[in-house]
Amino acid sequence: MTIAVDENGYYGEFGGAFIPEMLYPNVEELRKNYLKITQEPEFQQQFQHLLKDYVGRPTPLFLAERLSEQYGAQIYLKREDLCHTGAHKINNTIGQILLARRLGKTRIIAETGAGQHGVATATVCALMGMQCIVYMGSVDIERQAPNVARMRMLGAEVRPATSGSQTLKDATNEAIRDWINNPVDTHYIIGSVVGPHPYPDMVARFQSVISQEMKAQLLEKTGKENPHAVIACVGGGSNAAGAFYHYLNAPEVRLIAVEAAGEGVDTGRSAATSVLGTRGIIHGSRTLLMQTPDGQIVEPHSISAGLDYPGIGPLHAHLIQTGRAEAVAVTDEEALASAFHVARKEGIIPALETAHAFSALDKIRFERDEVLVICLSGRGDKDLAAYIRHLEAH
Amino acid sequence: MQQPTNRIQDLFQRKSGGILNIYFTAGHPDPKDFPATLSALEAAGVDFIEIGMPYSDPLADGPTIQESGAVALRKGTTLPWLFDQIKAIRAQIHTPLILMGYFNQVMQYGEARFFEKCQEAGVDGLILPDLPLLEYEKHYKDLVEHAGLAISFLITPQTPEERIRKIDELTRGFIYMVSDSSITGAKAGISDKQIAYFERINGMGLRNPRLIGFGISTREGYDTACRYAQGAIIGSAFIKALEQGGEVKQATSEFIGQIRP
C-alpha cells in the first residue's frame, strides 16, 4: 500500500480541512496552487539556491562513533542543527515564503511555541522584505526570552496569545483568527505538518529534503540508500515527516516516532499523543489529539516547548495507526539525561526536542551493527536555561 | 421525500423579514441561568435562540465568545447537561432553538447519536462552522435531514458564487451571512463595501432566506441587516450585556428593547 495524501487531503482516515467558511478561500487558493507552483522550474531554482547558499544545505550526515560503539550499532546523525537559525524549521519557511510571494501576499503570520519556527519565519521575512507577525503564547514569551529577542531583532512583531493556556495551541488559534480577519493580503506559514490540507502535505514536501539527502549520503557512506531505522522526535511532526518522507514506501526501513511523555505517560502531565490521544479535530485537521471525553482539547505537558502540543500531524496518526511507524515515549528526565550524554559523547548539544530522539536508543531493539539514522533536528542553545537548571540540580 | 416540519422553516413561512436571532453561550454567565435566559429571550420576543456549545478552541470566535465559553466550561457545562436542560424546558419554550458549535464535540458525542439527541431534546437547527460542505454532503446530510434538523452554512464576502449556490442547495432553514471578513464580535459600523456585498447576494435569487451576523451589535446594525436580508444574528453584544451582572430577565429585555424597540 502506497502512503500518500489523497486529493481531499486524507492519509487514510486522518487529515482533511475542517475549517470555518471564512478560511475557505485562502486554504482553497493554496490547495489549488501549491503543487503547481512548487514544481515550476523557477520556484525550484530559487528554493534550491536558498537551501544551499542561505540555509547551508546539504547538512552533513555524521557517523557518531562513540555512540555507535556504546550501542553496538552504526548511528548516523542528520545534522539539521547546522541549518541557518539552528533547526530544520527553516527548510519549510523558505519554501512557504517563496510560495506566498508567488501568490502576491505581502503580510506573513506564524505561530510559535519554543520560538524556533518564529525565528525561522522572521528570518525569511527579513530576507524577502515582508511584514511578519508571530503569535506566541504569553507563557512561552516568558520562558523563551532569547528567541523573542531574536524575532524582534529580525524585525518581526511578536504578539502574545492570551487566550486559553497561553501556549502553542493558543498561539495557533490566534494566528488562524488573524488569517480570518485578513483574508486577502496575508499568508499563514504554519510551522509543522498540522493544520488543514494542504498544509500537512506541503510542509512534509518542503521538509522531505532531509530524507532525500540522507539517501544519497547513506549510499556513499554505507553502500545502501536505506538504513534499518530512522528515528525522529514528533510534536506536530515536521522533522519526522521530512526524515521519513522518502522511506514511507520502503517497509524494510523502520520509522521510529519519539513522543514526549512529559512526567510520564500516566501522570496526567504528558504529551504522548499517540497513546493518550483519540480521534478528533484540531486546527482544521482530523487526527489523534488529547481531549476530554466531551471533546474539549486538553493541555499537554512536556519540558520541551516544541513537543508541547496536544495533537500530531495526520500523516503520523496514519503511520502509527497502521503500524508503519513505531511510537516511543520519552520522559522529561530521560530527555535531559540524553542531552548531557550526547553532549559529552559526541560534542553536540542537541535541542531538548531532539534529545528525546536520542533516548529512543535505550528503548528500541535493534540488531548488532544495524544502520540507525537519528534526525538531529535542532541545536540546544535555546535550551541552555533548562540545561543549567539540570546541571545545578545534579 | 417530504421533509418533517421544523420550527425554523415554519417561522419563515409566516414571517419574511425582521428576524432577530440572539446567540448566547450555554452555561454562561452561570449554568443555573440557562432556563431563565431562554425564557427571557422568548419573553422579549426574539425569533430564534442560538445556543452556543462552549468549546475549548473556538477558532471563528472573538474574545467575548471565547471567554464566555471558558467560563461555562470552568463551571462544568457539558453537552449531556445541555441536552438535559433543553429537553426539560422545551415544553415551555416555543421559539426555534439552534445549536451552534464546533464539530469536534459532535464527533466525540458520536455524530449519529448527536443528531438523534438534538431531535429528541427539541433542537430545530444547527450551525457547525467547521464542518466542511463535502463531509456534510457525503456523511451527514441524510442523518441531519432524517432528524428533521435545519442546518445553516456560512457565506462570507470572499465566498465564490458557485460555492454560494452549493451552500444554498445544502442549507435548510437560513444561510448565515458573515457580514465581513472577521471573527465574531470584531467590528462596529457597516461599510459601503459590505453593503455592496449584501446587495450582490440579494441579487442572486437564492432559495434560502439569509440572516446577517458577525459584528452586529446595535439597533442600527439590526435595521441595516433587515434591509438587505431577512434579519440579523447578534451574539457578542448580548453576552456583554449578560456580563453586566444583574438579573437575566431584565438585562435581556433591556438589551432586546434597544435593538428592537
List the helices and strands and how they pair.
The complex is a heterodimer of chains A (394) and B (261).
Chain A: E1 10-11, E2 14-15, H1 24-39, H2 41-55, E3 61-63, H3 65-71, E4 74-78, H4 89-102, E5 107-112, H5 116-128, E6 131-137, H6 138-143, H7 145-153, E7 157-161, H8 168-181, E8 186-189, H9 199-207, H10 209-222, E9 229-233, H11 238-244, E10 254-262, H12 273-276, E11 278-282, E12 285-289, H13 314-321, E13 325-331, H14 332-346, H15 352-359, E14 371-375, H16 384-393
Parallel strand pairs in A: 4-14, 5-6, 5-8, 6-7, 9-10, 9-14, 10-13
Antiparallel strand pairs in A: 1-2, 3-4, 11-12
Chain B: H1 7-14, E1 19-25, H2 34-43, E2 48-52, H3 63-74, H4 79-89, E3 97-100, H5 103-109, H6 111-121, E4 125-127, H7 133-146, E5 150-152, E6 154-155, H8 161-170, E7 175-178, H9 192-202, E8 210-213, H10 219-228, E9 231-234, H11 236-243, H12 248-259
Helix pairs in contact in B: 2-12, 4-6
Q: Describe it for me?
A:
- Chain A starts with 9 loop residues before the first strand and ends with a helix.
- In chain A, the strands form 4 sheets. Chain A has a 6-stranded mixed sheet, sandwiched between helices. In chain A, strands 7-6-5-8 form a 4-stranded parallel sheet, with helices on both faces.
- Chain A folds into 2 domains: 19-51 and 89-202, 3-Layer(aba) Sandwich (Rossmann fold), CATH 3.40.50; 56-86 and 208-393, Rossmann fold, CATH 3.40.50.1100.
- Chain A has helices at 24-39, 41-55, 65-71, 89-102, 116-128, 138-143, 145-153, 168-181, 199-207, 209-222, 238-244, 273-276, 314-321, 332-346, 352-359, 384-393; strands at residues 10-11, 14-15, 61-63, 74-78, 107-112, 131-137, 157-161, 186-189, 229-233, 254-262, 278-282, 285-289, 325-331, 371-375.
- Chain A contains 16 helices and 14 strands.
- In chain B, helix 4 (79-89) packs parallel to helix 6 (111-121).
- In chain B, strand 6, helix 8 (161-170) and strand 7 (175-178) form a beta-alpha-beta unit.
- In chain B, 48% of the residues lie in helices and 14% in strands.
- Chain B contains 12 helices and 9 strands.
- In chain B, strands 5-4-3-2-1-9-8-7-6 form a 9-stranded parallel sheet, with helices on both faces.
- Chain B starts with 6 loop residues before the first helix and ends with a helix.
- Chain B has helices spanning 7-14, 34-43, 63-74, 79-89, 103-109, 111-121, 133-146, 161-170, 192-202, 219-228, 236-243, 248-259, and strands at 19-25, 48-52, 97-100, 125-127, 150-152, 154-155, 175-178, 210-213, 231-234.
- Chain B is of the alpha/beta class and 261 residues long.
- The interface between A and B is large, with 35 and 40 residues.
